[in-house]
Amino acid sequence: MKFGKEFVSQMVQEWQDAYMDYNFLKSILKDALRHRQLNSQPSPGASTTTSQGPLKRRGSLYRAFSGLTSRYTRSPRKSSEDEEVILVSAVQEVGLDPRRYQTMFLRSSDNGGEYELLFFRRLDDQFNKVLGFYKKKVEEVVAEADELSKQMNGLITLRIRVEKPVMGLSGTNTSIASVGISPSPASVSVNGTRSEWTQMSVIQEVEMTSEEIDKPEDRDDGTAKAADTDHTANSRNANSSNCRPAPISITDHVHITVQPQSPVLAAKEILMSLNSDVSSTKAELRKAEELMMRAFREFYQKLQLIKSYCFLNQLAFSKIMKKYDKITHRNASRSYLKMVDDSYLGSSNEVSRLMERVEAAYIKHFAYGNRRKGMRTLRPKAKREKHRITFFLGCFTGCTVALIVGIIVALHARDLLKSPGRDQYMNTMFPLYSLFGFIILHMVMYAANIYFWRRYRINYPFIFGFKKGTELGYREVLLLSSGLSVLMLAGVLSNLDMDMDPRTESYKALTELVPLGLVGVVICITFCPFNIIYRSSRFFLIQCAFRCICAPFYKESLPDFFLADQLTSQVQAFRNLEFYICYYGWGNFKRRTHKFEESKLFEVFYFIVAVIPYWLRCLQCLRRLYDDRDTMHGVNGLKYFSTIVAVVARTGHELRRGFTWKIIAGTTSGVAMVINTYWDLVIDWGLLRRNAKNSWLRDKLAIQNRSVYFVAMVLNVILRLAWMQNILGFREAPFLHRRALIAVIASLEIIRRGIWNFFRLENEHLNNVGKYRAFKSVPLPFNQD
């Protein structure tokens, strides 16, 4: 793989505008090369080099950037002509920080010198951009490290409150050593109590410990070690005999600010706030530890990305200077890369030191000193593709095709499509099995979304907040959908086969329970507590679904309302689920007969079930309006309310029929379609920008072919028109039963939602790119006065 592609593949996508524009600089060098080829006259500065053949590559030179070698290997024979190609200087402009670097090209009068002059100007612009961004990020993580240190002090204080460690020598003052945070071995007494306590940050104290332990390489012999040991022992004895543990004054200034994540916790917090004497509980400590562990993991990941950013950019500057030397037959890279190495980008070590401190602090306070366990949490292994997934996916897909062929053969053998029992079968068994069809289609669309998100480098794991290494790829989702399709089609085929065989008539009741058994299997797999069949993803889905159900009581995140949007496209699946309950609990499933659809109660729930997904989404918008104070969320809630009115009107027209219902349903559906289409295209997708760089689209696009966006917009409008089929009177096609037509319309809505998913997440990703937002904000548990 060429470096340009590798460079793009490894960069942090949310920071892609802050990286060195390697392709742009490469294009300038290509222009310079074309100019040299058109002008065969060699430049005076390159005559000696060309006469000796192409410039020999010095591997140590091009690998000599910060992080690989300490300094550049200088050749014993240097040409003064090579050293005078460029002069690099640092200029401190007024009001600018950090200082900017400028390169003076000394051979502008040579043939093609104007291209080289332009190259170094643009190279300086890119380097200053990278340098400024890197320094800004380092300053942010340094400030965040200070805050984490204060939070760790608060966590230690909470541990002392809850666990109530053994009292110190004073009898009333609590010993700090019981929680194991002594900054150095010299400050711990023989009996395990701490003699002196300074309110030093935990990360700093761990660094001091590691530095004191690592000092032996600076000593000359074992005499110094022995002297230090004696001094430490004397200090311990003196401190243990003359001093008492100091009181923990920080306990009076730390307040727990863990936000309640459920109605029960919110009520508990209100009750505890009424009684200020209530002591801290172990549940609070456990929640605070979880938040701190998450904060440390996110912070460590941020440090890793910043370090990777520094490394890749230095590598890019080394590569582009290597290409410059190769094209121009000069040796200017030595001077420029030395400047890169001496700059803040190449010489700063704050990120590496912070990583060491975080590792030490996390292992000490959250992994109980187990380094392997701590590092496994901080650095989870990258997810690897497994061959068995592809194998089983192929097996299930082949079985699915075979079962479809078997069902077609069974239908023709029984001539079910023309038999008198066709209506009975379509009104009873088809809704039961079509529920699985809707779920499978949605999973297939989601798998397609994942494939295209990865292809166009949309960071969907970060947007959804998946734990690193647990996100499902499109192969895993297709594996689950194909497995479910095998179960569904096997149930359909067995049902048809048992109905055809006279010997199995006595087991008719059992055959009618096959769909219910499939539902039970799916529910058991979904809620299975064992670590099988992607437990982390299943539990993540369950948590999001639970927060959707309790929409007003939880602060909403993108996965929550994204899932709620998916549920709004599964209205027919919810109605089929209602049919399940009524068919097996109210109807006579042994004879495939039922009369509950004529009941008023069924009609009431037919309305309610259709409205529930939109109502939950509306409540989410109201909660976001309350949290963010953004009126756009209120407008979005009104959009869903208009959809609720349209759904109620369409359902009334479907059940009642009549000219009045038709007018109401047509009007409300038309208004809702216009509002929802505008919101999809303009707000969710960010398209239809008249003054954008890409006409009627947006400034940044993940797909280079702009026609894809216009096709998607047209499809969105057409598929939304499927809402109108019931109002316009298309209740049954000549070749389709009414139930089948309803299933087709519901499938079109699922397909529309799948298309919407891609562009919705693309817009979210590009917004993160525009704001350089590559990390999730983690709530911290404590507030210090």
Description of the structure:
- With 785 residues, the chain is an all-alpha fold.
- The chain has 28 helices and 4 strands.
- It is globular.
- Mean pLDDT is 79; it is low at 42-82, 167-250 and 274-279.
Oligomeric grouping of the chains: single chain
Cα(first) to Cα(last) distance is 54 Å
Low-pLDDT segments: 42-82, 167-250, 274-279
Fraction of residues in H or I helices: 55-70%
The gross shape turns out to be globular
Tags for this entry?
785 residues, mainly alpha, two-stranded antiparallel ribbon, two-stranded antiparallel sheet, 28 helices
What's the topology here?
Blueprint: H1 3-10, H2 22-38, H3 47-51, H4 59-62, H5 80-83, E1 86-91, E2 100-105, H6 113-163, H7 202-213, H8 222-242, E3 254-256, H9 263-274, H10 282-328, H11 333-342, H12 344-347, H13 350-365, H14 371-378, H15 387-414, H16 422-455, H17 460-464, H18 474-500, H19 508-512, H20 514-526, H21 535-549, H22 558-568, H23 571-585, H24 600-628, H25 631-656, H26 659-684, H27 707-720, H28 738-770, E4 782-784
Antiparallel strand pairs: 1-2, 3-4
Helix pairs in contact: 2-6, 2-10, 6-10, 7-13, 10-11, 10-13, 13-14, 15-18, 16-18, 16-23, 16-28, 18-20, 21-22, 22-24, 23-24, 24-25, 25-26, 26-27, 27-28
Can you describe this structure in just a few lines?
Helices cover 64% and strands 2% of the residues. The protein is mostly helical and 785 residues long.
